[in-house]
């Protein structure tokens, strides 16, 4: 899940989960690309990848191939569920992870190749496979969004059931706490607030992780940090070198990060208090900023000489933010619990932070301020998880539009002024299906099953 899933021409922007998170982050308004560099991620940032669905060296093929490869591998494991030998706990550990991998893969396919769940349940999503496949296996038609989410929830519930009581053996494994974390993420998209709250709280408890001060996880590059629930421990002979997350992010390393600087939206940065410890994640005084945003210092190589740095895919802080959002949505007495969960995080970030807000109002655009508690929780999520969870996925589920402006620090070429970023119902951020799928699947018709190559049908 940290390896490239594209031909050699695309490996520099196809390093598994961390690449897809970066892709989704630069598609929003908070994660600025100051320049195009060699073009890696720039076309995602400009929403200029969809017409390239016939190529195996572009984003559509990369995501589709990665997630369906993981589904296929999980299906081979699950097919052995009833015949696998060994202790029950060991079998449950293996099979539970396979269900979690399949749930996660279909969840990300749904978020990439269809509009968001709520309000689009009957629309086409992606094919479902639950049995092992071979070269001659007949392809499945596109299932509805609802059918895919039914599969996702069934799989993640099964994963949680089987993994409970098992001991996670490595940080890269999708153990009980991680399965709960994935369940919480899914529930947010489905707007099932009670499920999101309960799964997030149980994930916190089961993980044994704790919120730690910013200075205890500098560089966000170690899976050994006490707040990390899930990630890839990168070892020297498995480093992606230039084709790696930190190569794209760390401008101080003398690597590619200097060519396409990654910066924060200045208006988002300004929402932090003067004592917010997270301010060290960005540098307003960096000479490289010029007229752009503020250069990121959040993600750094742990060892530049050997290209080392672990990939962090889930932190416990996210679970507190999920719980807070869900409780806020539930309203009533749960608002106090939402503030409690929010304060659990912010007490470790800003000693002067207070929150007495209420309500769930959100602006039509992310920059339209309402002053609500929900907006405050989302704002802290945007700051805390910048570069980690993919901003566009939140904008989709929140059904908010966005604007990019020069005042935020965006370069002129990336303002998207002639694109409908203000319309969360458009197809602008729904990827096209790769041509290779139509070439090999008799049950999918490129005329009727392809997603729009433009912003609208």
Give an overview in words.
The chain has 457 residues and is mainly α. 39% of the residues lie in helices and 5% in strands. It has 15 helices and 6 strands. It has helices spanning 16-26, 42-45, 59-78, 88-113, 145-163, 176-190, 193-207, 245-249, 266-269, 316-330, 334-346, 373-384, 391-398, 435-440, 446-449; strands spanning 31-33, 228-232, 262-264, 282-283, 294-296, 311-315. It has a 4-stranded antiparallel beta sheet with strand order 1-3-5-4. Strands 2-6 form a two-stranded antiparallel sheet. It is globular. The protein starts with 15 loop residues before the first helix and ends in an 8-residue tail after the last helix.
Summarize the structure.
This protein has 457 residues and is mostly helical.
Largest sheet: 4 strands, antiparallel
Strand coverage percent:
under 5%
CATH top level class name: Mainly Alpha
Whole-number tally of structural domains: 1
Features:
Serine Threonine Protein Phosphatase 5, Tetratricopeptide repeat
């Amino acid at each position: 899940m940290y390896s490239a899933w594209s031909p050699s021409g695309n490996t520099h922007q196809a390093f598994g989960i961390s690449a897809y998170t970066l892709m989704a982050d630069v598609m929003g308004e908070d994660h600025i690309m100051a320049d195009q560099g060699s073009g890696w991620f720039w076309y995602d940032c400009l929403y200029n990848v969809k017409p390239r669905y016939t190529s195996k060296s572009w984003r559509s093929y990369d995501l589709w191939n990665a997630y369906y490869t993981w589904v296929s591998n999980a299906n081979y494991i699950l097919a052995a569920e009833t015949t696998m030998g060994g202790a029950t706990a060991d079998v449950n550990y293996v099979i539970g992870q396979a269900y979690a991998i399949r749930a996660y893969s279909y969840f990300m396919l749904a978020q990439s190749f269809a509009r968001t769940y709520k309000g689009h349940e009957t629309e086409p999503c992606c094919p479902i496979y639950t049995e092992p496949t071979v070269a001659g296996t007949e392809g499945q038609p596109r299932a509805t969004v609802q059918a895919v989410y039914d599969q996702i929830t069934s799989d993640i519930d099964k994963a949680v059931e089987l993994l409970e009581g098992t001991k996670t053996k490595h940080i890269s494994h999708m153990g009980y706490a991680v399965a709960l974390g994935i369940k919480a993420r899914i529930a947010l998209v489905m707007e099932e607030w009670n499920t999101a709250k309960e799964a997030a709280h149980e994930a916190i408890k089961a993980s044994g992780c704790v919120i730690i001060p910013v200075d205890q996880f500098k560089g966000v590059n170690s899976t050994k940090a006490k707040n990390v629930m899930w990630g890839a421990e990168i070892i020297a002979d498995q480093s992606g070198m230039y084709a790696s997350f930190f190569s794209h992010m760390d401008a101080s390393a003398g690597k590619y990060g200097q060519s396409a600087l990654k910066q924060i939206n200045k208006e988002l940065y300004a929402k932090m208090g003067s004592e917010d410890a997270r301010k060290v994640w960005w540098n307003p005084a960096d000479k490289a900023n010029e007229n752009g945003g503020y250069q990121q210092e959040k993600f750094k190589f742990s060892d530049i000489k050997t290209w080392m740095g672990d990939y962090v895919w889930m932190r416990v802080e996210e679970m507190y933010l999920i719980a807070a959002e869900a409780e806020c949505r539930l309203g009533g007495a749960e608002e106090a619990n939402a503030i409690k969960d929010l304060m659990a995080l912010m007490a470790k970030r800003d000693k002067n932070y207070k929150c007495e807000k209420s309500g769930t109002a959100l602006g039509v655009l992310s920059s339209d301020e309402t002053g609500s508690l929900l907006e405050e929780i989302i704002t802290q999520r945007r700051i805390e998880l910048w570069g980690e969870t993919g901003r566009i996925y939140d904008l989709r589920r929140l059904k908010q539009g966005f604007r990019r402006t020069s005042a935020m620090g965006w370069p002129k070429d990336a303002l998207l002024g002639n694109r409908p970023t203000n319309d969360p119902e458009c197809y602008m951020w729904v990827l096209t299906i790769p041509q290779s799928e139509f070439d090999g699947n008799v049950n999918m018709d490129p005329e009727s099953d392809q997603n729009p190559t433009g912003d609208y049908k």
